[in-house]
């Protein structure tokens, strides 16, 4: 389980499976500290970076359900950043 808290209070974790264009959820290493309503940035600082809002956090399956479908592909191990 990987989760890091940055000095500004943001939390980051990693994708544990590929997140493909057209899906609306992320499977991550840890959902600890991530809540519905937070801004989610996938692949921050990369050409395929995109920003969404967490609509739901599924603690049973380690999923973050997004407010909209992804428009780009994101590979296993990509950084997922969550902040208010």
List keywords for this structure.
mainly beta, 84 residues, Elongation Factor Tu (Ef-tu), domain 3, globular
The helix content is under 10%
CATH architecture: Beta Barrel
The helix tally amounts to 0
Largest sheet: 7 strands, antiparallel
- Poorly predicted regions: none
Instruction: Give the CA-CA distance, first to last residue.
Output: 22 Å
User: What oligomeric arrangement do these chains adopt?
Assistant: single chain
Task: Tell me the structural class.
Answer: mainly beta
Q: How many domains comprise the coordinates?
A: 1
Mean pLDDT: 91
Biggest sheet: strand arrangement:
1-2-7-4-5-6-3
The share of residues in extended strands comes to 35-45%
Shape field? globular
Number of strands: 7
Order of helices and strands: EEEEEEE
Q: Kindly report the CATH topology.
A: Elongation Factor Tu (Ef-tu), domain 3
Report the radius of gyration as a whole number of Å.
11 Å
Highest-level CATH class: Mainly Beta
């Amino acid at each position: 389980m990987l989760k890091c808290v940055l000095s500004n209070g943001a939390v980051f974790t990693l994708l544990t499976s590929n997140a493909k264009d057209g899906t609306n959820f992320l499977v991550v290493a840890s959902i600890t500290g991530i809540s519905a309503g937070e801004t989610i940035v996938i692949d921050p600082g990369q050409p395929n970076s995109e920003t969404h809002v967490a609509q739901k956090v599924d603690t049973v399956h380690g999923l973050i359900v997004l407010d909209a479908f992804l428009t780009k592909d994101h590979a296993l191990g990509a950084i997922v950043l969550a902040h208010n």
